[in-house]
Structures are given as structure tokens and as C-alpha cells.
Amino acid sequence: MTPLPPSFYARPALVVARELLGTLLVVRDAQGVRRVGRIVETEAYIGEHDLACHAAKGLTARTEVMFGPAGRAYVYFIYGMHCCFNVVTDEPGVGAAVLIRAVEPVEGLEAEVRTDGPGRLCKALGLTLTHNRMELETDALHLLPGEAVAESRVERGPRIGVDYAGEWAQKPFRLWVGDSQHVSRRPAPRARKRP
DNA sequence: ATCGAGATTACA
DNA sequence: GTAATCTCGATC
């Protein structure tokens, strides 16, 4: 199977976030153990003007990779204990990326480990800061095409944890597979009609 | 050199 | 509801 090429990632983050649903994230560790998850939840961070995007801080040591060529990993450490994994999108000069928020276990994962949530999936797959800036076409780290996810299964809503971003917090840039059991959060359930 | 905040998670 | 815990980036 051929890894997704740089041209796949060199499109607007919202497009990539949609197309990533259903694809396979493949990580091989130093011992040669392969771990694979199917992506079921993503969030698009579309550029410097997007106040929820780390690139809104401008070009810094941390955000530099987001402004570089598409098809590389952007991994950051947060809250003193978790890593979050993103893929860089768009043309060089555009600080955009897609956060992977949840995968379904496919290979190499113990039955009890959870892969829903950006921190949990990094822990489960062994993704760390050492993967930051890596190209996504290596044996150690790449994505593979999966079964296409029909539009009828795609749901959208506001991104998680970005309330500080004003109007940008409301935009429906979070995408997930509606019938997946491995999505990190669901919209507040609608109140049932009174019996 | 120091300080505040954070694209989260686990547990009371 | 809140503690845990480290990196980055801004400020002094």
C-alpha cells in the first residue's frame, strides 16, 4: 500500500480534515512494532487568521513546522502530560494543520487501551515530540488510504477547548464519523420528548 | 531568569 | 469540579 503523498496534504485544512476520515495512521516503533488506527475524528486549524490556531501566534520555533511544506507531523506537548498529533496542510507559508482527535484500533493495540481523544491516541500509538516535524511518508510514520467515508456519515461541530478564540470557536471545523464508537465527544444529547 | 497559559485527562 | 505537570513564548 502506498502512503498518502504530499499532494494529499497540500490542500486547505478543511478539505484535508474531511478526506482524512477513514484513513489509516501507521506508526512503527524502535522495536519494529507496528500500530495502526483508523481516523474517525479531526479538527481543522486553517491559518494565521484563525485565532484558535497555534499559528495565530505568528512564526515561532513551535509553529514553524505549520508554515512549512504539507505532509509533515506537528506534535506539541500540552498540560504537562499529553502530546497532540497534527498533520501540516496547505501551501508553504500558510500556517495550517489538522489535529487528529480519535482513531479506531486496527492493529498492534491492546484491547483495553483507548484511542479516543488527542492525548490518548498519541499515548496508544506511541507518538511523542520525537515525531514532531517528521515527514509522513516514512516507514516509521505514514498514513494509508482507507475505505472512503460517505458524506452521510460525516458530522460537524465546533472545535473542542478553544473557547478563547472568540467567533472562531464557534465555526464547525471539527469533523467526525457519526456512527463510530471511538469518537472522543458527542454533541449534547437532545432532550427527549416528555412521555 | 521568571511566569502564565494551554487544541487534555483522570479522578473526587 | 479540579489537580496534575511540562513546554513554549512573552516579559522583566
List the helices and strands and how they pair.
Elements: H1 6-9, H2 13-20, E1 24-28, E2 34-45, H3 64-67, E3 73-78, E4 82-88, E5 97-107, H4 118-125, E6 141-144, E7 154-157, E8 174-177
Antiparallel strand pairs: 1-2, 1-6, 2-5, 2-8, 3-4, 4-5, 7-8
The chain binds a DNA duplex (12 and 12 nucleotides) through residues 43, 45, 52-54, 57, 60-62, 76-82, 84, 86, 99, 101, 117-120, 129, 159-162, 164-165.
Describe the overall structure.
This protein has 195 residues and is an alpha+beta fold. Helix content is 12%, strand content 27%. The protein has four helices and eight strands, in the order H-H-E-E-H-E-E-E-H-E-E-E. The chain has helices at residues 6-9, 13-20, 64-67, 118-125; strands at 24-28, 34-45, 73-78, 82-88, 97-107, 141-144, 154-157, 174-177. Strands 1, 2, 3, 4, 5, 6, 7 and 8 form an eight-stranded antiparallel β-sheet that branches. A hairpin with a 3-residue loop joins strand 3 and strand 4 (82-88). The chain is globular. The mean pLDDT is 95. The protein binds a DNA duplex (12 and 12 nucleotides) through strand 3, strand 4 and helix 4.
The CATH homologous superfamily is named Methylpurine-DNA glycosylase (MPG)
- Provide the gyration radius in Å: 16 Å
The domain count comes to 1
- Quote the CATH topology: 3-methyladenine DNA Glycosylase, Chain A
Reading off the top of the CATH hierarchy, the class is best stated as Alpha Beta
If you average the pLDDT, what whole number results? Answer: 95
Enumerate the spans where pLDDT stays under 50 for 5 or more consecutive residues: none
N-end to C-end Cα span: 53 Å
What is the 3D shape? globular
* Helix share, percent: 10-25%
Order of SSEs, N→C?
Answer: HHEEHEEEHEEE
**Beta-strand fraction estimate:** 25-35%
Architecture, CATH level 2? Roll
Largest sheet: 8 strands, antiparallel
The chain-level structural class is alpha+beta
How many H/I helical runs? 4
EC number: 3.2.2.-
Pfam family, one: Pur_DNA_glyco
Family: Belongs to the DNA glycosylase MPG family.
Protein name: Putative 3-methyladenine DNA glycosylase
